[in-house]
Amino acid sequence: MKSAFMFVLSLAPLLLLFYAMRYYRSRWRAGMEQRFQKALDGLQIGSHVLLVDKVTVPSTDITAEVYRILRDDRGHYFLYMRTGDSIEILKPLTEERALQAVKVS
Description:
Elements: H1 2-42, E1 48-56, E2 65-72, E3 77-83, E4 89-93, H2 95-104
Antiparallel strand pairs: 1-2, 2-3, 3-4
């Protein structure tokens, strides 16, 4: 009985670390989605379709990266990028460049 208790007690820090990392990642993801929506609102982009959606959630050895190519409801294409804590970019793309980037991705 004592060894089982000690085993559970030894797992507690790992479980706490796991929970803390999940919490941090979910908070980061929610903040990233808010920034993305704010950038879309700035260019008055309503509905859109993501053609490429690559998101790397930060961890101790990986820098956060967001790379998205989207098409809005009017048929315009855009590139959204953000790396680390840098300022994000949302810039228009021609249809040819957007489709070429989609193929490469």
